[in-house]
Amino acid sequence: MQNQTPFIHNHQLNVIKKQANFLLKTLRSVADRKVLDTVRVSAVSKAMDVFDELTAEQKKLLERLADQEEAQHVQDYLNSLEPYLVPFPEVTAKQAQKLFPKVKKLKLPDLERLDYAHTTYLRWVDHATNRLFIVYENQDQFVGIEGRITPTHKKGFCMFCNRHQELGFFNVKLKGSSPENLSSIGQYICMDDEACNHSITDKAPLEKFLSSVGK
Predict the structure, then answer these.
(1) Which of 11, 34, 92, 215 has the greatest number of CB atoms lying within 10 Å of its CB?
(2) Beta-bridge mates of residue 133
(3) What is this structure's pTM?
(4) 121 CB contacts (<8 Å, ≥6 apart)?
(5) Residue 174 lies in a domain
(6) How many domains does the chain have?
(7) Which residues contact 180 (CB under 8 A, 6 or more apart)?
(8) What is the mean predicted confidence (pLDDT) over 44-52?
(9) What range defines the domain where residue 36 resides?
(10) Are 139 and 73 contained in the same domain?
(11) Of 206, 202, 132, 199, which is closest to residue 172 (Cα–Cα)?
(12) Residue whose C-alpha is closest to residue 46's, from 24, 25, 17
């Protein structure tokens, strides 16, 4: 592909990686060519399903997944997709502060060094207060939510990425709640920020949660 126009979002890349790993596992354990061919077709089909629209060139790029024969070939193929990634929009300290106006001493990660290309939603924890901050782009606008995250010291399925991970209970006060009328909503999510972004394959659960807390 000559025209390297970005079209793959992080969660879509994670789906492609998942299918690539399944193909690799099959290549190592199955000798039957018919079975292998079926898995190749299925892997490409599932990778394409997460895109609303694809040009002929983009389809050709994704179809190349089926041609990989060895672990190094698969990794080289995945590496070749990097120029096509649509990064999460970079966030400035000023923008972040505006999203959380009630937090007077907002502790931020190093925003300039974040791996935006492999980010579906931006999150960080202020360990002094156990507050988890989430920034997400919705309809070309940033939205931010914050709440308390409490480690459970147990593994389970994260609500956002649906992977079996070390979980924390994320509790967010609902918009409009007051000391007299306390209301909140909570979910079990990954404690590991990076692992969650590297595993998420569907934005819908995250967007549903953001919607439920009034953002």
Answers:
(1) 11
(2) 124, 146
(3) 0.91
(4) 88, 134, 135, 136, 160, 197, 200, 206
(5) yes
(6) 2
(7) none
(8) 97
(9) 10-84
(10) no
(11) 132
(12) 17
